[in-house]
Structure formats: structure tokens, C-alpha cells
């Protein structure tokens, strides 16, 4: 049964007049009459009583009207929802990010995206870079916010933020009292680095800074993620090298201090699979570009 015939039938059932129904449908009356006759033949029942000056629905016509209205309404709703998802107005977007990103520009970017697309469901989760890459490859997430970036030609990327590195220091450390901290003088310190695995990682990036400054740390304490690392700093295990943005959130037991010495900085980069052409992903990248230009 053609959906067009059901719409024609509903127009006649509501108008109870072939001429008015044809005008409403913007077609001529003879084709409309033929379509209704074809529908009656297909169903095997008379839908309208045409024996009087004004047509009436038969009992069969009343039954079909009830079902046809429900079918057409459901299909129109399906078309509308599908169109909205395709245009990015609704749907779901899965965004994962490195833990340290939650203290910088990312929260405001998420707020900005929500303000533009309030009906899109955002699923947020924290992962390290290796997990981000695996989740993108396995299509478990749509967008990854990595530090500094993921190495894969199958991923498209957009820079989000560039910032300096600073030190996270226990509040009972003698370093907290210094007016000036020189990175090259930190060789006797225990460095709390992350992630523990896989390697190479951000931990190796920090170690490369140490080598650039002419030393290897006296001791290493490896944590699996930023939150664990900063917790270890807070209880006096050692110092850490972290993005400047994390200092915007106070942490009991931790002082954040800038240092003198080699500071290559660190970046946040947004990634998505090149073959993920969903409107939601494209809109997230677009909001990120506007957000970055505004900051």
C-alpha cells in the first residue's frame, strides 16, 4: 500500500468532498478519484458511500482512517526525528578527553556546545591518550580531546589550546618557599609522572624536558592518570609537571608554581575519525573553532 494513497484517503475522509480534497492536495479531481478506487480495490472494501449527494465514510473507511492517521503521524514523526539527527539538532555525541583537560578550556567548550545544541545528548568520559585512540578506532567514541595529539592519519584533528607547563608542588615542600624555581635544579626531587602505561606518553615528554635541562630525576613515581598524580603530590610524594590550566582549580595540599628553564608548553587537540561525517561531530569541530578564535 502506497503512503501517498493513504494521504489521499485521509484528505477525502476529512473533507468528505473529492473536489475540496483535490484542491487541498493540489491535484486534479479525476486522478484523486482513481487513487481512492485503486486503494479500495487493493484493500477489498468500499471506503466511501458515494450513493448520496454528500459522500460518507463506510464502517471500513472509519476503521482505515483510524489506522491510517496513526501510521502517517508515526511516519511523519520518524521523518522529522531522522531529519533533525541528520542535521545535528538532536542525537548523541560521545566525547572523551584526557583528565587534565577538565581544568582548562574544555568545560567552557562543552557549555558552549550545549548552548548551541541543547537537544544533543552528550556522553562524556575521561581517558588517557592510548585509550582515546583505541576508542576512536573501535568507534566507541565520536570525539577525542588528547594532549598533545594522536598520531594516526585516519583521524582528522583541530587544535584547541596551547599553554605553558608549570610545577605542582606539595605545600610542605621547601620549593614552595622559593621566590624562583629553576628547573635544572630539580634533579634531587621525586617526579610524579603519568600515565604509567602505555609508553611512550606524557611521562616521557616530561622526562625529555629533564634531559634537556641536564639531569634525570632522582626518583620516579608513576601514576595512571592526572587525578592520581595530583593526589600523590598533595600527600607529599613528589612534584609533577602539569599544564598551566590545572592551576585554575585549587587543590588542598598543592601549590602551583611557574619555573625558569626549558618550557615547550603543551597542547590540546580535538580528533575524530575521517569517515565519521555525522552532523554532530562537524558541529562540535565548528564550535571548537569559533571558541578558539574567541579566546
Number of DSSP-assigned strands: 12
Question: How is the largest sheet built, in terms of strand order?
Answer: 4-3-5-12-6
The computed structural class is alpha/beta
Name the poorly predicted regions.
none
Major sheet: 5 strands, mixed
Quaternary arrangement of the chains shown? single chain
Query: How much strand?
Result: 15-25%
Count up the helices. 9
Calculate Rg over CA atoms.
32 Å
Measured between the Cα atoms of the first and last residue, the distance is: 57 Å
Mean pLDDT: 90
Shape call: rod-shaped
Give the helix level as a range of percent.
Answer: 40-55%
Structure description:
- The chain is an alpha/beta fold and 295 residues long.
- The two termini are 57 Å apart.
- 29% of the residues are buried.
- The chain has nine helices and twelve strands.
- Helices cover 41% and strands 21% of the residues.
- The strands form four sheets. It has a five-stranded mixed sheet, sandwiched between helices. The chain has a three-stranded antiparallel sheet with strand order 10-7-11. Strands 1-2 form a two-stranded antiparallel ribbon.
Amino acid at each position: 500500500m502506497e503512503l501517498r494513497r493513504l494521504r489521499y484517503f485521509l484528505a477525502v475522509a476529512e473533507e468528505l468532498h473529492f473536489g475540496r480534497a483535490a484542491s487541498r492536495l493540489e491535484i486534479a479531481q479525476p486522478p484523486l478519484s482513481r487513487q481512492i478506487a485503486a486503494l479500495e480495490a487493493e484493500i477489498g472494501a468500499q471506503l466511501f458511500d458515494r450513493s448520496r449527494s454528500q459522500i460518507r465514510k463506510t464502517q471500513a473507511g472509519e476503521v482505515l482512517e483510524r489506522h491510517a492517521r496513526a501510521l502517517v503521524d508515526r511516519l511523519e514523526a520518524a521523518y522529522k526525528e531522522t531529519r533533525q539527527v541528520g542535521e545535528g539538532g538532536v542525537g548523541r555525541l560521545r566525547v572523551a578527553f584526557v583528565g587534565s583537560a577538565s581544568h582548562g578550556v574544555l568545560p567552557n567548550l562543552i557549555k558552549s556546545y550545549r548552548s548551541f545544541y541543547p537537544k544533543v545528548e552528550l556522553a562524556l568520559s575521561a581517558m588517557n591518550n592510548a585509550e582515546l585512540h583505541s576508542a576512536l578506532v573501535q568507534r566507541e567514541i565520536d570525539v577525542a580531546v588528547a594532549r598533545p595529539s594522536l598520531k594516526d592519519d585516519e583521524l582528522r584533528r583541530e587544535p584547541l589550546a596551547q599553554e605553558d607547563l608549570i610545577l605542582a608542588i606539595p605545600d610542605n615542600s621547601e620549593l614552595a618557599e622559593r621566590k624562583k624555581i629553576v628547573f635544572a635544579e630539580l634533579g634531587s626531587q621525586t617526579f610524579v609522572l603519568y600515565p604509567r602505561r602505555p609508553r611512550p606518553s606524557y611521562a616521557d615528554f616530561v622526562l625529555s624536558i629533564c634531559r634537556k635541562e641536564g639531569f634525570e630525576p632522582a626518583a620516579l613515581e608513576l601514576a595512571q592518570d592526572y587525578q592520581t598524580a595530583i593526589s600523590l603530590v598533595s600527600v607529599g610524594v613528589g612534584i609533577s609537571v602539569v599544564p598551566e590550566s590545572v592551576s585554575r582549580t585549587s587543590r588542598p595540599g598543592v601549590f602551583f608554581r611557574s619555573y625558569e628553564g626549558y618550557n615547550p608548553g603543551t597542547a590540546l587537540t580535538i580528533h575524530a575519525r575521517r569517515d565519521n561525517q555525522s552532523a554532530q561531530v562537524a558541529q562540535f569541530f565548528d564550535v571548537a573553532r569559533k571558541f578558539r578564535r574567541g579566546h
